[in-house]
Amino acid sequence: MNQTRTLLFFALMFVAYLLWTEWEKDYVHPPAPPAPTGQTTAGQTGADAAVPGATSPAGVPNDSGAPADGKAELVTLSNDLLRLTIDTRGGSIVRSELLAYPTEPETKKNPTSPPVRLLDDEGAHFFAAQDGLVSSTGAAPDHRALFHAEKTENVLADGQKSVSVDLTWTDPSGVKVTKRYTLKRTDYVVDLDQRIENGSTAVWNGNAYHQLQRVPAEKVNWFKAYTDPAQHSFFGAAWYSPESKFESLPFVDFTKKPLNRQITGGWVSMLQHYFFVAWIPPANEAVTYSSNIVDPNSATPRYLVRAFGPAIQVAPGQAADSIARLYIGPKLQGTLDVIAPGLELTSNYGWFTIIAQPLHWLLSQLHAISGNWGVAIILLVLLIKAALYKLTDAQFRSGARMRKLQPRVAALKERYGDDRVKMQQAMMELYKKEKVNPMAGCLPILITFPIFIGLLRVLSESIELRHAPFFGWIHDLSAPDPFYVLPVLYFIVTLLTQRMMPTAGMDPTQAKMMKVMPLIFGVFFAFFPSGLVLYWTINGATSLLQQWYINRSVDRADIKAKTA
């Protein structure tokens, strides 16, 4: 395989990878699943009757049921990173704003931008974190019950380490429940404590549950599906167990592969590009995790994942607490596993995690040194090229020798005409005589391709590159180059690289493909995030320089051998 075929192999593998990620992703609105037949009993609607084969613990209410009477209000809880909006109807978090992450890059022309809203109570973008209690023997407040809050504004003040809000619910029987949400300074974790005080005369038996509900993103046109990096990221549910580690469930599979499993020491989440929300029960509790679809036949079905806790028993005159944590924030590598085991896997690098995670760590270290993510990408390319220099050196030297043999290969082609068998035999004899290995380019590409894909995943998924400026005209490495400078540079580099490759003996169709390849890839990368195009351009430029240097050294060695 000569140098040209190596490049074609690399390109085809890359296109195959893109097609695979397109198939794997779930950023299109999934079709509403068919209504279950013969499985819905009287009074069953919504979450408990939505999906055949999917089960949920008995007693958890349907959203379509009648809520408690009374007027609800919205309560705000804020620290320096999060601003949460809690609805007293159910005591659920219905809105979350990530104060450190603006929606758009902040520039001189656009100095302020609203923060990213992750949880949202708007219909088309509905995404809520809900929790509640259910009881088979007495009263309990579920996520539709009406709570009461003494204060509607709770903000972390200067000098405070944490801020809390209490929501109370009382039943005429004497059972009282207090939900306390707590935010600590510089923390994306919300602590939840549901305190059950049994003032009745009977033993209270029940369970706590925590769930996430959301409406998937709307279907987008083909152009946005290609140009928007978020469309290539995983969008759906994910969970972790110590036995099976990280697992995911795209929205299209909620009907076919419903989750229904008891796990101790796990968590459950909803993922999207850059950000996620996860319920984290206590590590020592055996929790039943399940998935479901609420109102599957509506225009906006809601996809649900739930953590149903173990039994709680509270004697008369006694109290008990059910605690859990809720993470609402970015996929910050290096910090998430401290919160819960396996939480860093939410970055979802897929099969290339074993390569991508070390590359992310190395990129972060280079950023700590350089102070600029674009410079860190350049330094990372140079380090990878240095580490693989010996492999690529053999590849380029083989290509240089084959390039020098082009006149002789052309003569063989003219001699044997269309007799491909004799032509190949003659070429193999020539390569053997001149000690040229046409397969020398295969090993480097087989080793470097997984590294490239791992780095591609890192640059696509790393929250650190979101809105990160480089220099000059590039204000956001996660967005395409606004003036297409990098794609044009990449086109030039690819064109020059192609001209240095041996072409003798090439199939005419392959030769035509090679001529248009620089233009195709230039247009292809025009809509890619500039951070990725920067990587490709620097990688191509360093390979071009290495190939030029090796070509010259081979020429000098040949001249020296002839004059010796």
Automatic annotation (TrEMBL):
Provide this UniProt record's keywords sorted from A to Z: Cell membrane, Chaperone, Membrane, Protein transport, Transmembrane, Transmembrane helix, Transport
State the family it belongs to: Belongs to the OXA1/ALB3/YidC family. Type 1 subfamily.
Q: How does it sit in the membrane?
A: Multi-pass membrane protein
Q: What does this protein do?
A: Required for the insertion and/or proper folding and/or complex formation of integral membrane proteins into the membrane. Involved in integration of membrane proteins that insert both dependently and independently of the Sec translocase complex, as well as at least some lipoproteins. Aids folding of multispanning membrane proteins.
Q: Which InterPro entries match?
A: Membr_insert_YidC, Membr_insert_YidC_N, YidC/ALB3/OXA1/COX18, YidC/Oxa/ALB_C, YidC_ALB_C, YidC_periplasmic_sf
> Looking at the UniProt record for this protein, which Gene Ontology cellular component terms does it annotate, in alphabetical order?
plasma membrane
Biological process according to GO: protein insertion into membrane; protein transport
What name goes with this protein?
Answer: Membrane protein insertase YidC
Could you give the subunit structure recorded for this chain?
Interacts with the Sec translocase complex via SecD. Specifically interacts with transmembrane segments of nascent integral membrane proteins during membrane integration.
- Bilayer-crossing residues are 373-392, 436-459, 479-496, 516-538
Per UniProt, the ranges with Low complexity bias are: 37-50
Question: Which gene is transcribed and translated to give this protein?
Answer: yidC
